[in-house]
């Protein structure tokens, strides 16, 4: 086993531990204030609804060159990718509008 392999496995472990701590600690802290869990649940449900709307709007068309190797793209997977892309676009636009609104609001005050 090479030094690079050891460091790579070490980084995998640190990423997993960091992700676990990053997810579990806010959940433990939010048990003190259950209303914050409600806000989080509303946000997750909102993003899920937005995804399903985007998924239903997206097309399941697959070009012949993507049906074969190495892609093996199916119509269902194509529609899921389209739904994720539309969701990403909508969330990016919402974020940009929020940033502009916040900056304009700060400039006025």
Automatic annotation (TrEMBL):
Q: What is this protein called?
A: Uncharacterized protein
Ordered alphabetically, the record's keywords are: Membrane, Transmembrane, Transmembrane helix
Q: Give the stretches traversing the membrane.
A: 6-25, 37-57, 77-101
């Amino acid at each position: 086993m090479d030094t690079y392999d050891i460091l790579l496995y070490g980084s995998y472990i640190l990423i997993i531990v960091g992700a676990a701590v990053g997810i579990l600690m806010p959940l433990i802290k939010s048990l003190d204030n259950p209303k914050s869990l409600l806000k989080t649940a509303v946000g997750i449900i909102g993003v899920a609804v937005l995804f399903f709307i985007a998924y239903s709007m997206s097309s399941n068309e697959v070009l012949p060159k993507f049906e074969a190797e190495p892609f093996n793209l199916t119509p269902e997977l194509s529609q899921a990718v389209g739904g994720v892309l539309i969701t990403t676009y909508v969330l990016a636009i919402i974020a940009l509008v929020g940033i502009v609104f916040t900056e304009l609001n700060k400039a006025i005050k």
